[in-house]
Design a protein that fits this description.
5-stranded mixed beta sheet, globular, 192 residues, 5 strands, alpha/beta
Length: 192
């Protein structure tokens, strides 16, 4: 397969969550082949995403995943953490593609990249990356749920829901929370 014909898709999951990692994925799918059902991960049920995940990984020419911890998100800022994760995913693809389509973000990289607004709904390769990133992140959140069930990570996946806010008020801020995010920072501030 000629590398100058390869196009990758890159996307992230968990950017706006109050807790848990930010996960980015980059995927090169073989040209001319499609897996039935692959579309924007937000349009799929968790069960559908989990069923598609091994098919994507098995068929991919290359697949790369990068996880940024809550502490790193706090240190870098969410935007820079997102760009860092996407850039590192692209760097770890082997072979390197001729072009990377990135959902929503302009990424400065030595491989040419193209920003696509709503790319996860418009590009097959970005959709595949969105599924990989979402399944990896959801799996990590299930692990967090098993480790500490107080916060209900298995249900809200670390996002800012009313239930998550209630759990934070009851149990306080945990090690998985992003302390730089306003709702968490406010709780920490009011405790002092």
């Amino acid at each position: 397969m000629n590398a100058d014909q390869l196009i990758a898709g890159a996307d992230e999951a968990g950017r706006g969550a109050w807790a848990g990692p930010l996960v980015a994925a980059a995927v090169i799918m073989p040209p001319g082949k499609r897996i039935r059902g692959v579309k924007d991960s937000k349009q799929l049920t968790p069960k559908q995403r989990v069923a598609l995940f091994p098919k994507i990984v098995a068929q991919a020419v290359s697949c790369s995943v990068v996880c940024i911890s809550p502490a790193e998100v706090d240190q870098l800022g969410v935007h820079q953490a997102n760009l860092f994760a996407l850039s590192h995913c692209i760097t770890h693809l082997d072979p390197q593609p001729a072009l990377v389509l990135v959902d929503g973000f302009a990424v400065d990289h030595y491989v040419p990249t193209k920003r696509m607004i709503h790319g996860d709904a418009r590009s097959y390769t970005i959709a595949a990356a969105s599924i990989v990133a979402k399944v990896v992140r959801d799996t990590l959140l299930q692990f967090m749920q098993q480790h500490d069930a107080r916060y209900g990570f298995g249900a809200h996946k670390g996002y800012g829901t009313a239930e998550h806010a209630r759990q934070l008020k009851q149990f306080g801020v945990g090690p998985w929370h992003r302390r730089s995010f306003a709702p968490i920072a406010e709780l920490l501030y009011t405790k002092h």
